[in-house]
Amino acid sequence: MVKVERRRFDRQFKIEAVKLIIHRGTPLAQVARDLGINENVLYRWKKQFQDDPQQSFPGKGHLKATDEELYRLRKRLADVEQERDILKKALAIFSKEPK
User: Fold this and answer.
1) CA-based Rg of the chain, rounded to a whole angstrom?
2) Distance of alpha carbon 78 from its chain centroid, rounded?
3) What is the pLDDT of residues 36-73, one digit of tens each?
4) What distance in Å separates the CA atoms of residue 15 and residue 96, rounded to the nearest whole number?
5) 8-state DSSP, 61
């Protein structure tokens, strides 16, 4: 079995590829062929860049500020729910009448 290593592209490469499509008007299919990239990948890069040019392609392990805040709030909510469940169980244990 042959293991194919996944190609990785840095942020600057992605931005330059998208700029070829947007600013120069080069067809997406042509840019994809020239760079040896699948058209679907290039289309996704273009969409991400158009949605938020400043924070597009944050890199591996990095989140956009809004996504980071959402992640932090979800984690905090999970922690609070866990604390609540522990307190409910403790209340049930201590509220039992002794025999």
Assistant:
1) 24
2) 20
3) 999 999 999 999 888 877 777 766 666 677 778 888 99
4) 64
5) T
Which tokens is 48 given?
A: 């991400």
Q: Is the predicted pLDDT of residue 86 greater than 90, yes or no? A: yes
Predicted structure pTM score: 0.56
Quote the CA–CA distance of 45 and 51 in Å, as a whole number.
10
Tokens standing for residue 45:
């890069």
Cβ-Cβ contacts under 8 Å for 52 (sequence gap 6 or more): 64
For residue 18, count CB atoms less than 10 angstroms from its CB and return exposed for 0-12, middle for 13-18, buried for 19 or more. buried
Shortest CA distance to 20 belongs to which of 40, 56, 12? 12
Is residue 28 within 8 A of residue 43, CB to CB? The reply is yes
